[in-house]
């Protein structure tokens, strides 16, 4: 039994292992996956002294609790939340030393949805197709954490970061998503296209790692019938039969038959990952580059 490991004391609502994902396998039906807020994941890795591609933990809403078997340096970021070590308050957004056997408690998010936990050395579960990421759609990668799960840790590549704290973006009060219209905006009436880019939507509680679902004006099609299945990309705004747009996130399917009215700029997807249910969503059309 190695002492370079974490024991999961409380798994939380949904805690998964994530890294940069496994791009390049869409032709095999494998989504990219990876951290939904890659900027937050990269930052906690930097704070913990890891390379940017090291695997971290992604929590959902109510955090998790972990017990290291040896002394480790950790960093918690992403959605702001209380952090405690054996019941004592610890820093969020900064390196924290956790003694062997102590319990690191990552609490409920006070804003946003997903917090990230990096451990010096990274989470060293077995990679699949070059990534350690959990993919909820395809089932690749490690299963979501459960109480009692033991996670091996990698060997630190260097010292932890020598910083006190770093600024991190605040989760959005209003989610503004820049979109490029198409490729199937011609499948919708002119009024529907106008509604998408001028009216407000809300984040649905049914959102998950596959897609951010919205509530609001239903978009009416100009054409009946269905498209043959075609390739789907990260950020695609697909419109199912109920007319409510769905923004595809990291675990999205690689093909689909419902029309895609627009595609969200990749730079805006980290904010989408942190938008709580009920958050106002506005789609803003930008010109094709």
Envelope shape = elongated
Find the count of extended strands (DSSP E, 2+ residues): 20
- Tell me the major beta sheet: 7 strands, mixed, barrel
Q: How big is the Rg? A: 20 Å
Based on secondary structure, the structural category is mainly beta
Name the poorly predicted regions.
none
- Which series of helices and strands comes N to C? EEHEEEEEEEEEEHEEEEEEEHE
Strand-helix topology:
Layout (H helix, E strand, L loop, with lengths): L4 E6 L5 E3 L19 H11 L7 E3 L5 E5 L3 E7 L4 E3 L2 E3 L4 E4 L5 E3 L8 E5 L30 E3 L21 E8 L8 H9 L2 E3 L7 E5 L14 E2 L4 E3 L7 E3 L6 E2 L3 E5 L4 H5 L6 E6 L4
What does this 3D model show about the protein?
The protein is mainly β. Helix content is 9%, strand content 28%. It is built from 3 helices and 20 strands. The strands form 4 sheets. Strands 12-19-16-17-14-13-20 form a 7-stranded mixed beta barrel. The longest helix has 11 residues. It is elongated, with a radius of gyration of 20 Å. The termini are far apart.
């Amino acid at each position: 039994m190695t002492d370079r490991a974490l024991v999961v004391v409380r798994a939380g609502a949904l805690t998964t292992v994530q890294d940069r994902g496994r791009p390049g396998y869409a032709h095999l039906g494998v989504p990219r996956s990876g951290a939904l807020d890659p900027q937050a994941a990269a930052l906690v890795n930097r704070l913990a002294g890891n390379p940017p591609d090291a695997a971290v933990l992604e929590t959902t809403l109510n955090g998790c609790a972990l017990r290291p078997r040896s002394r480790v340096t950790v960093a918690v970021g992403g959605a702001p939340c209380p952090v405690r070590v054996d019941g004592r308050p610890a820093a969020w957004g900064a390196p924290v030393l956790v003694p062997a056997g102590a319990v690191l408690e990552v609490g409920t998010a006070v804003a946003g949805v997903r917090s990230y936990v990096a451990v010096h050395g990274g989470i060293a579960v077995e990679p699949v197709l070059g990534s350690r990421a959990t993919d909820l759609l395809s089932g690749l990668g490690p299963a979501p954490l459960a109480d009692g799960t033991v996670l091996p840790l990698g060997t630190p590549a260097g010292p932890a970061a020598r910083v006190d704290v770093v600024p991190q973006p605040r989760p959005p009060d209003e989610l503004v998503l820049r979109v490029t219209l198409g490729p199937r905006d011609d499948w919708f009436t002119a009024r529907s296209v106008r509604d998408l880019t001028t009216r407000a939507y809300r984040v649905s509680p049914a959102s998950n790692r596959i897609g951010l679902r919205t509530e609001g004006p239903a978009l009416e099609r100009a054409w009946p019938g269905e498209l043959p299945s075609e390739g789907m990309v990260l950020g695609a705004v697909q419109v199912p039969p109920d007319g409510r747009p769905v923004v595809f996130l990291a675990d999205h399917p690689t093909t689909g038959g419902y029309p895609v009215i627009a595609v969200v700029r990749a730079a805006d997807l980290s904010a989408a990952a942190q938008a709580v249910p009920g958050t106002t969503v506005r789609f803003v059309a930008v010109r094709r580059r």
